Amino acid sequence: MGTLFLDPIAFSIGGLKVHWYGLILGSAALVGLLLAVWEGKRFRIPQEFFMDLLLLGVPSAIIAARIYYVAFMWDDYKNNFWDVFKIWNGGIAIYGALIGAIICAVIFVRRRGYNFWRIADICAPGLIIGQMIGRWGNFVNQEAYGGPTTEEFLRNSLHLPSFIVNQMNVQGTFHHPTFLYESLWNLVGLMLLLILRRQKFLRSGELFASYFIWYSIGRFFIEALRTDSLAFQGAAWLASFVNGLWSPMTWFGFELGYLAPSYGNVRISQLLAIGIVIAAVIFIIVRRRTVSDLPYYSDPITSTKVAAVEVPGAVGNAEPVKVEPAKTTEEQPEVPEEKKE
């Protein structure tokens, strides 16, 4: 690092230092939760369900994200094992976080009796807004930035405020604010998801898949600007293929960020992004053609673990009303003969 314009320590309580990185990630999770709770009310899903999901999902995501990052950067940690746990210094891989969160969600949602894809659709906007906010943690830590650029480009071409331009000055060299590019990309994606989920044609699981498609497209192009990408040594044709797909960015004056040969020649996040986009498109097409009773996004959501029956006409987040089953013939009280007539 170096030439930090912003102090990564927000405040201290005694000997405990509270980092902006943690506060920003916590705020991102909270905003994502509120967005999911708000949409969940339309389907009469109690807010406690989403709160429990968050309490389990966030630790799972952080642990998986750290494992993912450390696995590809093991040479940097094998002689400093305790640094593995210093997540406040950065080193959280977003795809690792998604893997951890999805595994946790599949288990939790099914145990609560809900269909995973229906809940994933509700959570999709919360995920992308969480990523949009969370990227500012990288900004404060002065990490995940792009290749060199000029102060003039940042101030006069992008018209960025001074606090961003100054923070992008790393040891005397200005760099592309890739955190900002991704945050803005996610902001546009959030608006698209909010519009898309009100369309009548949308089926179960397709909003979640759309989130992955949108995010991965942006990540593919932004990742190549970075200088700290996780990478591996792949075949020459694979590296040429990936770089060829990215080449239209040069039309806008961007250049590939430097990738140390010791890391490899293929950025892992770029390759994952390509695979995810292809898989998500196939997922949507195949399900539409093979699942005859595929529910729409707007269809009611029910849990197989809830014994109560909701009375038609209930509104808001009202509690379900329990309806007693009809009594059998043996349980019906005897009616006097004169009453039967």
Automatic annotation (TrEMBL):
Keyword Glycosyltransferase tagged: yes
Subcellular location as annotated: Cell membrane
Pathway membership: Protein modification; lipoprotein biosynthesis (diacylglyceryl transfer)
InterPro entries noted in UniProt: Lgt (IPR001640)
Binding-site positions, a 1,2-diacyl-sn-glycero-3-phospho-(1'-sn-glycerol): R135
Bias kind Basic and acidic residues: ranges: 321-341
Principal place of residence: membrane
Signal peptide: none
This protein's record includes keyword Cell membrane: yes
Family from the record: Belongs to the Lgt family.
Function: Catalyzes the transfer of the diacylglyceryl group from phosphatidylglycerol to the sulfhydryl group of the N-terminal cysteine of a prolipoprotein, the first step in the formation of mature lipoproteins.
Protein name, as recorded: Phosphatidylglycerol--prolipoprotein diacylglyceryl transferase
Taxonomic source organism: Paenibacillus rhizolycopersici
